Amino acid sequence: MFILEGSDNTTMYLVEGTEKALLIDTGTRIKNLDTFVSQITKKPVMVVITHAHGDHAGNIKYFPEIWMHPADTVLLPKEYKGKINFVNEGDIFDLGEIQIEVSHMPGHTPGSIVLLDRKAGVCYSGDAFGANHVWLQLKPLSPMQTYVNSCQKMEKLMDGGITKVYCGHYVYVKKPYDKSYITAMRELGEDIINNTAPEAKPYSPKRGCANPMFVTNGPATIVFDPDHLNRKKE
Fold first, then answer.
1. Among 41, 52, 40, which Cα is nearest to 19's?
2. DSSP letters along 82-118, please?
3. Beta bridge pairs of residue 47
4. In what order do the strands lie in the sheet with 83-86?
5. Does position 231 have pLDDT exceeding 70, yes or no?
6. 31 vs 146, more confident
7. N or C: which end of the chain has fewer CB within 10 A?
8. Residue 228 phi/psi, 5° resolution?
9. Are 43 and 22 in contact (CB under 8 A)?
10. Which CATH architecture is the domain 2-224 placed in?
11. Distance in angstroms (rounded) separating the CA atoms of residues 40 and 38
12. CB–CB of 104/88 below 8 Å?
C-alpha cells in the first residue's frame, strides 16, 4: 500500500495486488495524476472515490473510468465525461490476492463509503469518520443518527477483524486509527443527539450552513448544523 499526499493535505491510497491496482481517491490540484500513478505501478489501475467532495474527487478528470456510491452523484463535478460505475454494500474489487470490499458509511455525505481489506485488517475510510474531527454540517445533510449508525457499523467491523482505519487526511494524524477513536466519535454523536454533550462553540470557517457549531470530547470533534440535528423528542 502506498500513501500519497496532495498539496491540500488530502490523502490518496494506492493498493496493488498481483493483477490490478486500486487508487482510492484522487485529491486536488495534482497535475497529471494518472502519469504519476503509472510511475508507481505498471498494473491496470481502477479508481474509486470514497465520496464526491472536490478534495477527494478533484482529479477524476485524469481517468476514463471511476467507481463511486450512487448517493453521491449529486456532488460529482458535472464536467466529468468518463464512465461512472456504481458500487454498493459488499461489492468487491479483486486485485489478485487482495480483495477490497465496499461498505456504505453515510453521514459526512450520503454516499460515503469505506474500503475494507479484511485479510490485512485495514480500512480506508476517506472522510467518513474524519481526521480528528468530522464535518457533518455540509449539504446534503444527514441526521446525526445516521452518522452514529455508521460508527456502530464500523465498531462491529473492528470487532470482526479490522484493526486499522486509514483516514482521508492522514497528514494530520500520521497513524491509522484504532477502535477507540470510532467509539469516541459514536459516543459524542449520541451525546449531541441527547443534548448531553459539552457546550458547542461556533466553528470557523463557516461552510455548509449559516451557523456551524462544533463539540469536542477527548479525541473526538464533530462539526454540525444545530438547526438540523433531528434530536430525539424529550
1. 41
2. SEEEE--TT-EEE-SS-EEEEEE--SSSTT-EEEEET
3. 23
4. 2-5, 11-16, 21-24, 45-48, 65-68, 83-86
5. no
6. 146
7. C
8. -140, 60
9. no
10. 4-Layer Sandwich (3.60)
11. 5
12. yes
Is residue 135 within 8 Å of residue 223, measured between CB atoms?
yes
Name every residue whose Cβ is closer than 8 Å to that of residue 188 and which is 6 or more positions away in sequence. Answer: 197, 215, 217, 220, 221, 222
Q: DSSP characters for 51-83?
A: S--HHHHTTGGG-SEEEE-GGGGGGS-TT--SE
pLDDT digits (tens, 9 = 90+) for 40-58: 999 999 999 999 988 889 8
- At 233 the pLDDT is 40
- pLDDT averaged over every residue in the chain: 92
The predicted-structure confidence for 208-225, as pLDDT tens digits, reads as follows 888 999 999 999 999 999
By the 8 A CB rule, do 62 and 47 touch?
no
Domain boundaries along the sequence of the chain: 2-224
- Percent with pLDDT over 90 in the chain: 78
> What is the rounded CA–CA span in Å between residue 54 and residue 25?
10
**Residue 230 — very low, low, confident or very high, per pLDDT cuts 50/70/90?**
low
Cα–Cα separations (whole angstroms), residue 107 to 6, 72, 112, 142, 151? 24, 11, 7, 6, 9
Q: Are 148 and 190 in contact (CB under 8 A)?
A: yes
Distances (CA, A) of 61 to 6, 43, 74, 168: 16, 20, 17, 19
